[in-house]
Write a structure and sequence with these properties.
The protein is built from 15 helices and eight strands. By secondary structure, the chain is α/β, with parallel strands linked by helices.
Length: 355
């Protein structure tokens, strides 16, 4: 059984264009991708500057994209990260939040994400404060579905090192306090999980008191380390049996909008084929569908350089050969490879701190 699949545009760095977003929706909807959560880290009006209203031009562009989603039969949603709101949820903050919700409601959004990730979290009353905020939002938003992302959305201890030690029983308290209709996101045993097991997901569901809404950090390739690589290979480590343990499966796509469609298509195939799934064959089918036979062959022949070696290992001579090879194609995916080779998608540590 295939769960509800969708796209989460939740990465740091260079965002997609509106045309790229609409093209992705139209390309992946036939494969079963039924929702799109717009939440790029670079959009300050959803994050550190969430109190500021959207400019009219941006709101108009968002409305156009929302319509493109509706035309494709895809649920349109926005991920709002009200930065450190839980530190002071006073009347002024509530007024600012109500104004932002009204703007978002004007877009006709179906899903609203309330994200508490990437913020300091070592507070003893963190869970009840976040429960209060999410319920306050749910009472005022016109969205059909509210999806909350916890501050500690994985077992990975890296979050405790960066944002402070998670409060005891945080996930259990959050799950116990939230209305059962509200979804809760989870990225797995790690921030970028290598695999998911039904047993792990069942354990998390027990803690949350609901099945996790999966935020899968593949093929995302942001950050100083990952942006040096293209993530193109097919999905592995996502057994079809896990579909019974999750409420939905959203993938955080790579910075390269067209190339991201290749692994995205393989995830749909892995659920469809179950135990018969073969990841190399799935990659080849998806690559040919997205790129055409010749460009797909060029990508497969250079996977070891593009995905495994990366920019820190590729020599100047190899880079020139790659530019010559992909420069021969008039295709947006080839242009993404060329831009990546030129460093256009590179992300520094400072962007992780400021976006």
């Amino acid at each position: 059984m295939t769960p509800e699949l969708g796209i989460i545009e939740g990465f740091f760095g260079r965002p997609y264009t509106w045309e790229e977003r609409a093209d992705m929706v139209r390309a992946l909807a036939p494969a079963g991708y039924g929702f799109y959560l717009y939440a790029p880290k670079i959009d300050g009006h959803l994050r550190r500057r969430w109190r500021e209203p959207y400019p009219d031009a941006t709101l108009e562009a968002l409305a156009g994209f929302a319509q493109a989603c509706r035309d494709a039969g895809v649920r349109f949603g926005v991920g709002l990260s009200p930065y450190e709101l839980f530190l002071n949820f006073d009347d002024a903050a509530k007024a600012d939040l109500a104004a932002k919700l009204a703007q978002l409601d004007s877009l006709g959004l179906v899903d609203l994400g309330v994200f508490f990730d990437d913020m300091k979290g070592a507070l003893p009353e963190l869970a009840p404060r976040q429960v209060e905020i999410v319920h306050w939002i749910a009472e005022r938003s016109a969205a059909d579905r509210i999806i909350a992302c916890p501050s500690y959305y994985t077992d990975d201890p890296v979050l405790d090192r960066v944002f402070g030690q998670r409060p005891a029983n945080y996930l259990e308290d959050l799950g116990a306090g939230l209305d059962p209709a509200i979804e809760l996101m989870w990225t797995g045993e790690e921030v970028c999980a290598r695999e998911f097991s039904p047993g792990h997901l069942a354990r998390v569901a027990e803690q949350m008191r609901r099945k996790p809404f999966l935020w899968d950090n593949y093929p995302v390739n942001d950050g100083p380390r990952m942006s040096r690589h293209l993530h193109l290979r097919a999905f592995t480590g996502r057994p079809a049996a896990m579909s019974a343990e999750i409420s939905a499966h959203g993938i955080n796509t790579a910075s390269q909008a067209v190339l991201s469609r290749i692994p995205a298509l393989t995830l749909a195939e892995s659920y469809r084929d179950g135990d018969r799934y073969q990841y190399v064959a799935a990659f080849r089918r998806a690559a040919r569908e997205v790129l055409g036979p010749d460009l797909a062959d060029a990508v497969e022949r250079t996977l070891l350089l593009l995905e495994d070696a990366g920019l820190d290992v590729i020599t100047a001579e190899q880079s020139e050969r790659l530019k010559a090879r992909f420069g021969a194609f008039d295709h947006p995916a080839a242009r993404e490879v060329l831009a990546w080779l030129d460093g256009a998608f590179a992300i520094g540590a400072e962007e992780l701190q400021t976006q």
